[in-house]
Amino acid sequence: MPRKFISEQSLVTDKWITFDPLDDEIIAKLFKKDIREGEEKLMFAVLADAIEDFQKHVFSKDQRGQKLFQEAEEWFLEKDDDQLFSFEYICATLQLHPGYVRRGLLSWKQSKLKTHAVERPRQARTKLAKTRIKYPSIRLSKTA
User: Fold this and answer.
1) Structure pTM?
2) How far lies 17's CA from each of 12, 21, 87, 101, in Å?
């Protein structure tokens, strides 16, 4: 008995493909794998962007930078895992432990705040000008 071939539009590409209905499971797995890899790449990009905003804007003085930092920090600390792109859902999808990532980011922040607190008073100090006196008022000479 001859097999029927079916044409379907691919989810991954815009081309039409022809496949054997008996191989439907294999093709479905491949499509799911491509879609899954794409979703994971997107989730990784979201996580990487949030980490970058968190680290880049920790000492930001402008409102935009402060807002980006605050949003990233709130997103990391949020315990909601029901949302599709929540921190905990992304960590679960990427097989990361959210508590470990949180602790790492918070300890990074604490160390940066400590070093910033130490460096800031040093930067505020004015440097003493080193002036060279060309003509001292008192001449030092050897006395016999």
Assistant:
1) 0.60
2) 11, 12, 37, 42
